[in-house]
Amino acid sequence: MLTKGITYADLVTTFRKGQRNGNWRKLKFLDKALFRAAMGYAKRGGSIVNGMLVEKLLRLVARLKEISKGMRIFKRGYAKAVAMLDRGEEIFGGVFVWAPRLKGWLKDPDYIFWLGTNLFLNPFTSKSLYGKTLRGKKSFTNNFFYLR
Predict the structure, then answer these.
(1) Is residue 143's pLDDT more than 80?
(2) Which has the least CB within 10 A, 39, 83, 120, 123?
(3) What is the pTM of this model?
């Protein structure tokens, strides 16, 4: 049982965030009804302290605050870019020596987003997402810089 209460201000900010990021429309009808009823009750009563209701509302709050697909793609691309920047100096005798523009690309938001959407190569395995091996390339670092 949780002893923490949820206030009206918390519910309203979460509601607005959920509407902005589009997660509000993904909720089921009964979940929306529960959330609206809780907002109405909290507006008059101050806060909600019932443990079971708070648990259900916290689950709804978590679903409303989930990040969008675009942000998930960007985070995945950012992780790849950071790994490439870290490993770039030791690969092939310094990949940034013979490809100096790559360092600039890895700091460009559009390129980082593209890295997140690149579905053809899975950098953490030696296989593409289609299950074919990449010409005998087995290491993690070679898959990052493998170009067809």
Answers:
(1) no
(2) 120
(3) 0.53
- Around 124, how many Cα atoms within 13 Å sit in the side-chain half-sphere? 4
Residues 51 and 94 reside in one and the same domain: no
CA–CA distance, 5 with 22 (Å, rounded to integer):
26
Contact 78, 116 (CB under 8 A): yes
Domain holding 102, by residue range, is 69-144
Does residue 59 form part of some domain? yes
Could you give phi then psi for residue 6, rounded to 5 degrees? -110, 125
Contact 54, 2 (CB under 8 A): yes
The tokens describing 83, both together, are 């790994």
Q: Which residue has the tokens 């289609």?
A: 130
Last residue of a domain, one of 64, 83, 113: 64
Q: How many domains does the chain have?
A: 2
The C-alpha atoms of residue 145 and residue 123 are separated, in whole angstroms, by 9
Q: What residue type is 62 in one-letter code? A: A
- Give the list of residues 6+ apart from residue 14 with CB closer than 8 angstroms, or none: 61, 64, 65
**N-to-C CA span, the chain:** 56
Residues 42 and 82 in one domain: no
- For the record, the structure tokens of 20 come out as 């902005």
